[in-house]
Amino acid sequence: MPQSTQLGDSKAAEIKAVSIGKTFGAFHALRNLSLDIARGEFLTLLGPSGSGKTTFLMILAGFTAPTTGRLVMDGEDITDVPAEDRSYGMVFQGYALFPHLTVEQNIAFPLKVRGRSSADIKRKVGEMVARVGLSGHEKKLPAKLSGGQQQRVALARALVFEPSVLLLDEPFSALDKNLREMMQQEVKRLHQETGTTFVFVTHDQSEALALSSRVAIFNHGELLQVGKPQDVYERPGNRFVAEFLGEINLLPLDALRLEGDRAAGQFEERTIVLNRTMPMIGSDAVAAIRPEHMTIGTGQHSADRNAITCRVEGATYFGASTKYHLRTRTGTSLAVSMPTAATLLIAPQTDVWVSWPVHQGFLLPVGS
Ligand SMILES: Nc1ncnc2c1ncn2[C@@H]1O[C@H](COP(=O)(O)OP(=O)(O)O)[C@@H](O)[C@H]1O
Ligand SMILES: [Mg+2]
């Protein structure tokens, strides 16, 4: 792990989920899910509401038994090991602080139930209070704390006994934007300092991309793709992943063909060239390009860029960036996002070029 002192001699765990399935009656909440969680990584489970993220986290925690499949931790089958013997740290929605205990009593609780000596408890709690920035608040009850401070207590209580795994289920979804960003940085730092394996659940794509060493994308109880934030964002394996991670422009291509190590296809009267990222020649595909990778111009464009003609329909100002809404000759709508400082004021109904570097476009199968 990078930087700083370790909290103790706790050993981060690695977990292998092998063909996990979970049904509730006839309903499949998880289907044949296999995933290797590496020792000390920050893995985020990302997906829309109802996609099975919490169900999978509850199975990892030992609160829910899978219908099929096995869980293996550090080489040992733990599928039937009860939650209290897994001893993971947890910060869940609705997994509240004890309201009648002070900050330090809340943090001390997991050490007390583990029968640690009072000297040990005093030292560990003191360290943890300082680590989450709550010095001076030790004697307060949770009701006297702000939402962010309460989440810090919850994090401290989950980490104080040096668990081998920390599970977090949408811990910041109730916080406002600024506080959420602060807590994200806090969690990232705690991950680096403890070296513990973190499994974090969110439905917020920017939170997932900002925090994680890897992101696992769920939909309808299936794991669709897992990879580093840059890889899943820049090279999504299918349309759901591409669209869930951010806005994307899709151009249907005709006459798809190979040209050396590149793919090419026709869009309206233009040839679009793409890096050949998938063996899908012969099938229908769309060219996919993120709005921030495209630029608008009225003059010449260089040969290493794709370009299509569009008409500007409008613009939305977002402060740091401005998003242009455009339409191609045959009616495909496009969005182009440019830094506001770099944009000229382009009036609606102007005909422009929209261009992008060849390497920023990729192919997605139609209908995926
Ligand atoms: N105990 C349960 N009984 C019946 N259905 C459940 C139960 N727990 C979860 N589900 C269903 O499983 C699906 C996945 O739920 P969940 O894992 O909570 O999704 P997420 O956390 O991604 O929002 C949902 O459709 C939910 O209604
Ligand atoms: Mg959930």
From TrEMBL:
One of its GO terms (biological process) is quaternary ammonium group transport. Transmembrane segments: none annotated. Residues 15-245 form the ABC transporter domain. The keyword Membrane applies. It holds the Pfam family ABC_tran. Keywords: ATP-binding, Cell inner membrane, Cell membrane, Membrane, Nucleotide-binding, Translocase, Transport. GO terms for cellular component: ATP-binding cassette (ABC) transporter complex. It comes from the Bacteria. Belongs to the ABC transporter superfamily. PANTHER family: SPERMIDINE/PUTRESCINE IMPORT ATP-BINDING PROTEIN POTA, THIAMINE IMPORT ATP-BINDING PROTEIN THIQ. This is Spermidine/putrescine ABC transporter. It comes from Phyllobacterium brassicacearum.
